[in-house]
Amino acid sequence: MATLLHWRHGFDFPSRFKRYLPPAITELLVASVAVAAAIGLRLLVELAFGDVVEFALVFPAVVGAALLAGWRSGAYVILIGQLLAWYFLLPIKGSFQFATPGNAASLVLTTVAEALMLWLVVGYRTALRNLVELQGGRAAALEQRLAALDEQARIDAQLRAQEDSLRETRQNLFAIYNASADGLTLCRAVKDENGAVVDYNVLEVNDAHRELTGATRAEMLGAPVSQIAPPVNPLWFSSADRALKTGKMQHFDVRSPVTGRWLNIRVSPVSDDLFQQTFVDVSDRHLLDEQRRRLLEEMSHRIANNLQMMASFLHIQAGLAEESAKIHLRTAEARVHVLSKLHALLAYAENDREIDAAAYIADLCDHLSTLVDRSEAIKIEHRCEPLPLSADKIVPIGFIISELVTNAAKYAFPNRADGLITVRLAPEGEGWALTIADNGQGLKDEPKIKPPQRRGGLGTRLVQAFVAQIGGELVTTSDAGVRHVISFRP
Hints:
The protein has 15 helices and 13 strands. It is α+β, with helices and mostly antiparallel strands.
């Protein structure tokens, strides 16, 4: 194949020298050189051996010219060679006349034979060129194929190296994943048509998860969570939904029904539908909280007993005191009773950080109903909406309600056998409003609106102090009764 390519590019003179000469000129020059070579060789042979056949050396000249420069160059050799042989070699020499008819026949037959040979040489040359082009195309295709195979081998080697690196990285990550003392799960959310998380599938889980929850890897990876342990606490889905929508971690506490451990579940977003759950054992914290709650209950129980004892002492002292002092002792006794009840309500609240004000006020009003005089005739009603409040807010509100309700029970209904005191807690504007109102006689010889800074007795000053403590504002109106409105922001 290398030889054919060398011939194709090295001995096709018209193609090789086309930058310098037109192909037709190259073909004519090659034919001239071939004829000259044939004449020179004949002269040498004739000097050595005498007369030779007239047309013998034209044949190799035709072949050489045709091979080197194409069929036109070979045709030029036939034309020039036959004319020269006719003129110089055939009898009559030096003219274009024939001595015998056989000389003419010899010229014609020789010319036909040379033309036939030229046809064969041209056919061979064409076939050889096609073969060269075919071999060249195959060689180029083979080179491309070899280059492609080399490139594919290089890419395969890179992919194998990347796969090995990824496999090693995955093994390391999974080792770290399993080495964690916290339970870990990687989950894919299942969403409804509105984009809310309604279920999820666990894609990966570590060994610590089984120790904390009792659920095996096969159980967790086998089906959606809603089918593993129904019914599912809605917190699992709502926390995942908030984490994916806000991009922020969500957490909540649950207790495993299998292991009995308290777990803090931390839900962290990974992508649009992937999230990770981290299971942290917080059983010790819950145990400490339970112990603290019991200690607080015990302490509160003792404090409540002490307050009840103080109230009893005040009651006994009031029975022995003069009338002028008895009123003040009874008032102090009532306040101690209220303080004892407030302390008991706070101590037995389920959450020592926030307390539902509605439930708290309801219990307080029920307790006050048993303390006010003529409790069977004076009714205390409460209409409060749920509002979580901290202890530093709920205690002053309790004292405010206690002072204003007991004050209304004492002074609002002097000439009536019955009355109604209402306590209401509801939103108002950007804050909340606590309203204590009665349908009694109203304020005698007092303005219709009593500003909060107006000083009065001890009870009034206490109320004003508690209102200031919660950052509120008190407005008192008197129209068919007395109405106290405390506006504040939780």
